[in-house]
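re: the backbone from monday

yeah here it is again, tokenized this time
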């Protein structure tokens, strides 16, 4: 599904399908879709891995090249062992510090991480089974924003219209967040199983390790 198709779904959910009288512009809906995609990425990030060089004699690894990073799941060092050799680590801004006994010798490490999903006119990294979640959040954000804007405006639906929009928007956002929480738990189980040799799931702070 691309961004145009996602906009269509959101308009359908908002009952805003008349091109001659759209309540929300395409730009506005795309902003709300982007907000929902960011929230989704925090719960279920796009899984990636990258080979990153280390510095001989230093435990610190520069991870600034991992763009749109949401979290780091695991650090494999050295690379190529079986089972894989995962290291405890801590992260501060763009510096990852290995905390185990092994000091890097300048060889590469492999970092398994999650990043923001992409959704544009030609590309989407959101798994198809999760695409139905994004319109719920995007519509919720659109309704809440419109309600805030319309408080001091003349509304054809009456003075209660902003309140009704706000209530419905909050309801949809609550549903969206519940779904992200449910899916996020499922995602963490899936990631932990992927890295069976690791003693525990790494985090953006400090991984307690084995």
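seq for it, each position gets an aa:
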């Amino acid at each position: 599904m691309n961004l145009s198709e996602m906009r269509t779904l959101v308009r359908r959910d908002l009952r805003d399908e008349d091109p001659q009288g759209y309540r929300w512009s395409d730009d506005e809906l795309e902003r709300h879709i982007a907000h929902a995609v960011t929230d989704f990425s925090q719960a279920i990030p796009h899984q990636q891995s990258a080979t990153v060089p280390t510095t001989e004699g230093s435990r610190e690894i520069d991870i600034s090249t991992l763009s749109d990073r949401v979290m780091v799941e695991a650090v494999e060092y050295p690379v190529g062992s079986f089972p894989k050799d995962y290291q405890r680590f801590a992260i501060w801004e763009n510096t990852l510090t290995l905390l185990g006994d092994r000091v890097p010798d300048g060889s590469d490490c492999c970092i398994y991480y999650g990043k923001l999903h992409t959704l544009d006119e030609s590309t989407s990294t959101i798994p198809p089974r999760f695409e139905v979640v994004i319109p719920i959040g995007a519509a919720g954000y659109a309704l809440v924003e419109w309600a805030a804007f319309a408080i001091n405006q003349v509304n054809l639906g009456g003075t209660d219209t902003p309140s009704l929009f706000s209530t419905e928007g909050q309801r949809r956002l609550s549903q969206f967040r519940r779904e992200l929480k449910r899916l996020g738990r499922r995602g963490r189980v899936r990631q932990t199983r992927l890295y069976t040799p690791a003693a525990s799931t790494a985090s953006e702070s400090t991984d307690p390790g084995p």
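The chain has four helices and six strands. Confidence is low (pLDDT under 50) at residues 154-159, 189-203.
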